[in-house]
Amino acid sequence: MRAALPALASSLEHYDDAVFGLSSGFFYLPAAQAEAWGVTDDVFQHALLRTLALGHFHFAWQDQVVDEGIADPVMCLLSDSALLGYLDSLNTLADTRSRRYRNLHESYYARYAAAVARDLRHRAEVAPYDADDVLGLGDKAAPGATVIHLVADVAGVRTRGASAASALLRLCAGLQLLDDLADAAHDARAGNLTWPVTAALQAYPELAPDDGEGIRAAVQGSGVAGACLRLAAEAFEDAHHRAAQAGAHVLEDLAGVWARRCAQRLKAQATRGLPNLARETS
Amino acid sequence: MRAPADLEASTIDAAREGVERELLALQTTRQDVPDLDDIRRGMPQANGDQDTW
Question: N or C: which end of chain A has fewer CB within 10 A?
Answer without folding.
Answer: C
